[in-house]
Amino acid sequence: MVEFGYSQLGPLLITHWGVSGPSVLKLSAKGARELFEKKYDTILKINFVPGMKKDEVRKKIEKEKELHPSKFVSKTPILGLPRRYWERILEIHFIDFSKKWSGLSSRDLHVITEELTDARFRISGKGEFKDEFVTCGGVSRKEVNFKTMESKIVPGIFFAGEVLDVDGVTGGFNFQNAWTTSYIAARGILNSI
């Protein structure tokens, strides 16, 4: 999410309704507050060939053109891309599936390079099926005694789990937070009676 200055490297899953996977979940956790403030409307930039610069990708595409001039571009995905995604790149940039590598124009080479290294996707709203995994916000940690989980503001009130402003990147972290803070809160409550 370029607008917020966040980036994340890792596995990416392309689904029928968008992107998901560990890297997307981590990125969502990093930018949860900003996404909320922007009403979940921003641009996601994806580099499908991390570790390679644009000029390296361009040279790789040019090399493919040189080595396989008579092969169909649509039948020879490059850089380990899944065939269906490769075909989608060609389709959205109006590169005919019957075009051979020798027929790729400079414009074609440019748009393929850009799509692989600097693809832009609009984020508009939350998940259609309300299956979000990231939570954030809650009772400020400054207002809680972590030895008992009791409120520093209102004595006798104890907090645990996701009601606290503790953001977990994955469900495992959130479970551990819930179990640990619940245990401490239960001990705090017992000791207060």
TrEMBL record:
Keywords: FAD, Flavoprotein. SUPFAM superfamilies: FAD/NAD(P)-binding domain, HI0933 insert domain-like. Its cofactor is FAD. NCBIfam families: aminoacetone oxidase family FAD-binding enzyme (TIGR00275). Gene3D superfamilies: FAD/NAD(P)-binding domain, HI0933 insert domain-like, Translation factors. It holds the Pfam family HI0933_like_1st. It comes from the Bacteria. This is Flavo domain protein. Residues 5-134 form the RsdA/BaiN/AoA(So)-like insert domain. The lineage of its organism: Bacteria, Pseudomonadati, Spirochaetota, Spirochaetia, Leptospirales.
